[in-house]
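Structure in, sequence out. Go:
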């Protein structure tokens, strides 16, 4: 006996199949596509310049201006990683020396080649610039991938956000993420090796024989 399926049933089955395929394809669209172990969320370093124009008078930095500059440094919470530049049209060594003394209280040296800042430096003034860098990881956290299906063996869309965000928050000088720290020719590893080599080259304590010690009578 031949059974016939009603037309409306066939149409309903076809619609359900089309709907399921559509949902599957839409789920694939939200799947992550990064198949490497390199995170697509990398730290970026942004630099902001803060400026203060101080009066130089007849040369050098008058005491009231030194106090104003010292207060500005304190208000800016000058810290390791900041860079200080001087934009002095006259190029006075006395002015630079006074600013270097104030910056030296924070352990910061005055750098050369001041960056270009908006506006002109008026006559009889010197512009002090604090260049401050900040590291961040934009787009994190990233939970844009909604599907649990991972047919391409890709990493999560949020992969690397935690590690790189912690790194950006903890690095003392964000510029080290760009060019690294200048440790000079003597690195920590080399210093450790020197200590190990000195220990190995030293003569054993028993090279000249053991010292005889007798009991002392009271």
């Amino acid at each position: 006996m031949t059974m016939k399926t009603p037309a409306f049933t066939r149409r309903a089955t076809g619609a359900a199949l089309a709907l399921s395929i559509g949902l599957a394809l839409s789920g694939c669209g939200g799947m992550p596509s990064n198949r490497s172990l390199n995170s697509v969320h990398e730290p970026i370093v942004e630099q902001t310049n803060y400026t203060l124009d101080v009066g130089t008078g007849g040369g050098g930095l008058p005491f009231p201006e030194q106090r104003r500059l010292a207060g500005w440094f304190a208000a800016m919470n000058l810290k390791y990683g900041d860079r200080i530049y001087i934009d002095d049209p006259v190029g006075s060594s006395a002015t630079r020396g006074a600013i270097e003394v104030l910056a030296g209280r924070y352990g910061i040296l005055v750098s050369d080649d001041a960056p270009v800042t908006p506006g002109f430096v008026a006559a009889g003034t010197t512009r002090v610039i604090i260049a401050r860098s900040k590291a961040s990881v934009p787009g994190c956290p990233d939970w844009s991938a909604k599907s649990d299906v991972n047919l391409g063996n890709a990493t999560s869309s949020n992969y690397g956000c935690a590690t790189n965000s912690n790194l950006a928050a903890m690095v003392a000088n964000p510029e080290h993420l760009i060019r690294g720290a200048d440790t000079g020719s003597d690195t920590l590893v080399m210093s450790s090796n020197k200590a190990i080599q000195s220990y190995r080259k030293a003569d054993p304590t028993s090279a000249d024989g053991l010292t005889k010690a007798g009991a002392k009578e009271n």
